[in-house]
């Protein structure tokens, strides 16, 4: 399969020569009697650099790809952060990998955290889904741009724009309102991020310069391909967190050519050009940002997608793992493979954690003890891939996430052995129990 390369490049692709009109978008009659259709990813008037749209040339306009449908409920896919579905998360929380769920992937989606809401068009939801080998429904999600990362086996992602294969260690991004079908040859869990805010873009590199982090040319877009067998298709449509299903007499994947800068793409996270400290101190993790969804406030992201991959640690006289901190943003984390240096125990591939806005956290006791005593020779972190969805809005947890058997009831216990600074305790005769309020019991107040 061939791909087009370059983040937000202006791509042109034909499954059949002569499909794309030359010098215009919407001729009186398109080649082969095809229909021209524009799909926008931004307001028509968005400024240059943020203006996203593509033109498709298709067998039927997508208005023909709708039918009356019935509302259907998928209760664990949550897109509104009201009290009926979600609750406030005071404590740091962590989940073991979720058990696979029967059924098709849309009904298998279990949302763990949500910031903002689909209706407000701010924030995100973070979920885990199970994808089986069998036939899956086609989804059309008007609520969000979706980002998917398979956990144990590669997946194939077909949209009207063509097909993208997404291996373990890669991500795929699907534009809002595109028809999408997921398939796999081996059952796999998938991390699923819904971005309710503005579409992902590359972070400004600032003083880093013109290169580094995720490089534009490593983002790959599909070449046009269409489903020739126009058979009945089962579609699920999502809007403001509600679902409707209907059957089409034909396939919505009927685009023979498209051009534009708005399309699904994939990115291999192993290509991320990780930068870091070559002198001292642990830098802020913003240098690991792959994609950012900007908010209305300059410098404040709606969502940053951050990745912690293989890298050298060389900083001198430095506590090398993440420091203890309270972040004004909220941090959802997941692990694709390997071990995460701040949490060598209990943070498992396919699992997840939440450290909400302002919530204190940092290395577990084990990580702290080792890193504060280790010899500071250059050290390579290998075979690891963790990620973070960092949001400016606080993240709520779903009732499912609160009550899941996979939730680690004693996550905060990973900090319970932390001792008060011993020399101060001795010097000033401070009773050491006053600073020990880390309970190892379940302090989640649900
Ligand atoms: O909490 C975490 O593990 C994520 C994180 C990593 C890091 O290197 C610095 C800050 C931060 O929030
Ligand atoms: Fe953090």
Automatic annotation (TrEMBL):
Q: Which InterPro entries match?
A: HgmA_C, HgmA_N, Homogentis_dOase, RmlC-like_jellyroll, RmlC_Cupin_sf
Signal peptide stretch: none
Q: Which domain of life is it from?
A: Bacteria
Q: Which GO terms describe its cellular component?
A: cytoplasm
Pfam families, A to Z: HgmA_C, HgmA_N
For the ligand (homogentisate), the binding residues are 340, 361
UniProt KW keywords: Dioxygenase, Iron, Metal-binding, Oxidoreductase, Phenylalanine catabolism, Tyrosine catabolism
Q: What is its EC number?
A: 1.13.11.5
Q: Binding positions for Fe cation?
A: 325, 331, 361
- Homogentisate 1,2-dioxygenase C-terminal domain ranges (all copies): 270-419
Q: Per the entry, which co-factors are needed?
A: Fe cation
- Record bears the keyword Transcription regulation: no
A molecular function GO annotation: homogentisate 1,2-dioxygenase activity
The catalytic residues are 282 (proton acceptor)
Task: Indicate the segments forming the Homogentisate 1,2-dioxygenase N-terminal domain, all copies.
Answer: 3-269
Q: Does the keyword Oxidoreductase apply?
A: yes
Q: Name one GO biological process term.
A: L-tyrosine catabolic process
Q: Which family does it belong to?
A: Belongs to the homogentisate dioxygenase family.
- Please identify the protein, giving its name as recorded: Homogentisate 1,2-dioxygenase
| Species the sequence originates in | Marinomonas polaris DSM 16579
């Amino acid at each position: 399969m061939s791909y087009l390369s370059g983040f937000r490049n202006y791509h042109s692709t034909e499954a059949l020569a002569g499909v794309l009109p030359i010098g215009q978008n919407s001729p009186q009659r398109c080649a082969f009697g095809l229909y021209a259709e524009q799909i926008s990813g931004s307001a028509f008037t968005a400024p240059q650099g943020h203006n996203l749209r593509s033109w498709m040339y298709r067998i039927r306009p997508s208005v023909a790809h709708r039918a009356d449908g019935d509302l259907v409920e998928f209760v664990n896919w949550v897109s509104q952060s009201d009290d009926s579905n979600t609750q406030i998360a005071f404590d740091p929380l962590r989940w073991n990998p979720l058990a696979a769920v029967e059924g098709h992937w849309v009904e298998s989606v279990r949302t763990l955290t949500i910031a903002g809401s689909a209706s407000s068009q701010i924030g995100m939801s973070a979920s885990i889904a199970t994808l089986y080998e069998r036939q899956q429904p086609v989804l059309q999600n008007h609520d969000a741009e979706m980002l998917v990362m398979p956990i144990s086996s590669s997946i194939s992602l077909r949209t009207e724009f063509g097909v993208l294969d997404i291996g373990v260690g890669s991500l795929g991004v699907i534009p809002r309102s595109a028809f999408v079908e997921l398939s796999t040859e081996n059952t796999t869990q998938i991390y699923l991020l819904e971005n309710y805010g503005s579409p992902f873009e590359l972070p400004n590199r600032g003083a880093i310069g013109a290169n580094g982090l995720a490089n534009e040319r490593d983002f790959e877009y599909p070449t046009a391909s269409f489903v020739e067998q126009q058979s009945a298709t089962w579609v699920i449509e999502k809007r403001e967190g509600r679902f409707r299903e209907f059957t089409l007499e034909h396939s919505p994947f009927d685009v023979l050519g498209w051009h534009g800068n708005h399309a699904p793409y994939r990115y291999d996270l192993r290509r991320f050009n990780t930068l870091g400290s070559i002198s001292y101190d642990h830098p802020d993790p913003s240098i690991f940002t792959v994609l950012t969804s900007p908010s209305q406030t300059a410098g404040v992201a709606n969502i940053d997608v951050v990745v912690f991959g293989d890298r050298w640690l060389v900083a001198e006289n430095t506590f090398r793992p993440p420091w203890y901190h309270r972040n004004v943003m909220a941090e959802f984390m997941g692990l694709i493979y390997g071990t995460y240096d701040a949490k060598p125990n209990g943070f498992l591939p396919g699992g997840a954690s939440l450290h909400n806005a302002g919530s204190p956290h940092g290395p577990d006791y084990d990580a702290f003890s080792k890193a504060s005593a280790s010899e500071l020779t250059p050290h390579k972190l290998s075979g690891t891939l963790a990620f973070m969805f960092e949001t400016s809005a606080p993240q709520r947890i779903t009732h499912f996430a609160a009550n899941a058997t996979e939730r680690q009831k004693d996550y905060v216990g990973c900090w319970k052995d932390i001792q008060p600074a011993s020399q101060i305790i001795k010097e000033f005769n401070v009773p050491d129990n006053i600073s020990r309020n880390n309970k190892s019991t379940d302090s989640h107040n649900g």
